[in-house]
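Lab meeting, item 3. Inverse folding demo.
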């Protein structure tokens, strides 16, 4: 399932231990080597405590759904210096959004304004590209598959050729996360099925 990365910003983080939201995402940290999200920087809530780490590694996400990312507790949050790979990428100050997109012949295609992420692997799947002004009247936005990317640097993304450009469809914008783990806010009943726990019921009532 694909989801727009922009939909993962200001996304709730829910704790099993607390039974509700404890903080939110501030930005995604993308590794330019393999174009995957490795962590989310967090802001607000419990991470305002200086003793609580302010980054969530994607491997510590138990589940993700419409309500937010579910984690065991704030104990999984880390500081940048605690994880060598994370610290290294943060020092690169890499930001996929805003990069120019050009072909091998240096023809300008546009700039990255968003990207879609595979909800199972957190790998960047497609770039959402805003076209230059004169071309935007025909194709305001395009999506480019990661397989067409040949090079990335601090300023631009180079793609194989512009023959591979595809118009962004409305269905791409509307795709949402769906859980791919058993919801820890549910518990099995005696029939071996799942039923909502009181925590889940309370969360649903609050959202209403």
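The presenter then showed the designed sequence:
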């Amino acid at each position: 399932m694909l989801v727009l990365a922009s939909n993962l910003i200001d996304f709730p983080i829910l704790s099993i231990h607390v039974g509700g939201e404890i903080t939110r995402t501030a930005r995604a940290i993308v590794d330019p080597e393999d174009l995957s999200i490795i962590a989310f920087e967090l802001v607000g809530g419990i991470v305002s405590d200086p003793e609580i780490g302010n980054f969530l590694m994607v491997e510590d996400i138990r589940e993700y759904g419409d309500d937010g990312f579910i984690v065991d507790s704030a104990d999984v949050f880390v500081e940048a210096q605690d994880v060598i790979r994370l610290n290294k990428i943060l020092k690169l100050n890499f930001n996929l959004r805003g990069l120019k997109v050009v072909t091998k012949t240096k023809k300008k295609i546009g700039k990255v304004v968003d990207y879609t992420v595979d909800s199972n692997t957190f790998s960047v799947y497609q770039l959402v590209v805003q076209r230059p002004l004169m071309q935007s009247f025909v194709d305001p936005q395009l999506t480019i598959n990661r397989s067409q990317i040949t090079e990335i640097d601090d300023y631009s993304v180079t793609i194989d050729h512009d023959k591979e450009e595809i118009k962004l469809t409305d269905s791409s914008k509307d795709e949402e996360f769906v859980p791919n783990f058993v919801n820890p806010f549910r518990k099995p009943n005696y029939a071996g099925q799942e039923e909502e726990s009181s925590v889940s019921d309370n969360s649903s009532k609050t959202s209403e």
